[in-house]
Design a protein that fits this description.
Strand content of chain A: 15-25%
Number of strands of chain A: 3
CATH superfamily of chain A: K homology (KH) domain
Order of helices and strands of chain B: EHEEHEEHEHEHEE
Largest interface: A-B, 24 and 25 residues
Number of helices of chain A: 3
Oligomer: heterodimer
Largest sheet of chain B: 3 strands, antiparallel
Shape of chain A: globular
CATH class of the largest domain in chain B: Alpha Beta
CATH topology of the largest domain in chain B: GMP Synthetase, Chain A, domain 3
Distance between the termini of chain A: 28 Å
Number of domains of chain A: 1
Strand content of chain B: 25-35%
Radius of gyration of chain B: 20 Å
Number of domains of chain B: 3
Helix content of chain B: 25-40%
């Protein structure tokens, strides 16, 4: 149970190519950052129309973090982040 | 609430179990039929907390050849006709999906199917993390509902839709929105000027449309792009 598992569950359920999904959780200062890597074709499916899917994922992750008294952020990596 | 069958159908067999599916299998087996060959009525549905077990009791009856008008009334705006009717399988699949999703996020809530209305599976969350989910004007709850729908309908042409409620959040919110709609409509009629509401999610806009659809002297419509789409209440001549 953790940020990475939740994000992975959602992202794999949204994309066309779940095999290519790679989720990494890193610590940056006092916060956890969940980094989502997908097939470039699938980036839009994770973000959603007007960013609504990624906003929903973020809002659940931040509530989950609040429960534990932590901070957590979600980042979608695109090619330019490589 | 339960899944209503024709009231005169009282024959059949009961079955119980710790999940709805288990209860249905037991009830169907008691009749010597498969789950697909039966209709079910839920007699008892206990969510089960963290320390108590969930319990379901259902009555199975052989499926009627012609089901007649057993469909529950839809709470839809008249413009959106929709042939899909959520089944108990949809309900269980949706419940399991949302439960898994929330467990992954570390939320301590139980998910139950409260009712099936038209194409909607209405889910309810109960447990220690209810308040956490209601915060920020229901933004977390809306996120769960939105994401749940996206995951549920992934890879399906047409499918049932989910609504997710926690505590009595949505039913209270519905009362607030209905009162707001009526109060603003009264002002619109009095001043003969249209009123623009704050942006609302789709299911809340529908509450406004439905609250005013039979009211004389006003009409409602939505404008703008999601997620900033909003309702306009206008005088109708």
């Amino acid at each position: 149970m953790g940020y990475g598992e939740f994000v992975e569950y959602c992202v794999k359920g949204l994309v066309a190519n779940p095999e290519a999904v790679d989720i990494e959780v890193i610590e940056e200062g006092d916060a956890y950052v969940v980094r989502i890597k997908t097939d470039p074709e699938d980036v839009g499916k994770v973000i959603g129309k007007n960013g609504r899917l990624i906003t929903a994922i973020r809002s659940i992750v931040s509530a989950a973090a609040e429960k534990k008294g932590e901070k957590a952020f979600v980042k979608v990596l695109t090619d330019s982040d490589e | 609430m339960g899944y209503l069958l024709e009231p005169e159908m009282k024959e059949g067999a009961e079955g119980s179990g710790r999940t709805l599916e288990e209860a249905r299998q037991n009830a169907a087996a008691a009749l010597g039929l498969s789950v697909d060959e039966c209709d079910f009525e839920i007699l008892e549905e206990r969510a089960g907390g963290l320390f108590s077990r969930a319990k379901f009791v259902v009555r199975a009856v052989p499926k009627a050849v012609e089901k007649g008008e057993a469909q529950p009334a839809q709470e839809e705006a008249p413009t959106e006709s929709e042939p899909i009717t959520a089944t108990e399988e949809d309900g269980e699949r949706a419940r399991a999906l949302v439960e898994e999703m929330l467990a992954q996020a570390g939320f301590e809530v139980e998910v139950t199917v409260e009712s099936l209305t038209g194409k909607y599976v209405n889910l309810k969350l109960q447990g220690p993390d209810e308040e956490l989910i209601q915060q920020k004007k229901g933004a977390v709850l809306d996120a769960i509902q939105f994401l749940g729908n996206a995951l549920y309908s992934h890879g399906r042409q047409e499918s049932a839709r989910l609504t997710v409620d926690v505590g009595a959040y949505r039913s209270k919110r519905q009362q607030v929105l209905e009162k707001l709609a009526r109060d603003i409509a009264a002002l619109v009629i009095e001043k003969q000027e249209e009123a623009v509401l704050d942006p609302l999610p789709a299911h809340e806009r529908r509450i406004i449309h439905n609250a005013l659809k039979d009211m004389e002297g006003v009409e409602t419509y939505s404008e703008g792009e999601e997620p900033q789409r909003y309702v306009v209440i206008a005088p109708k001549s």
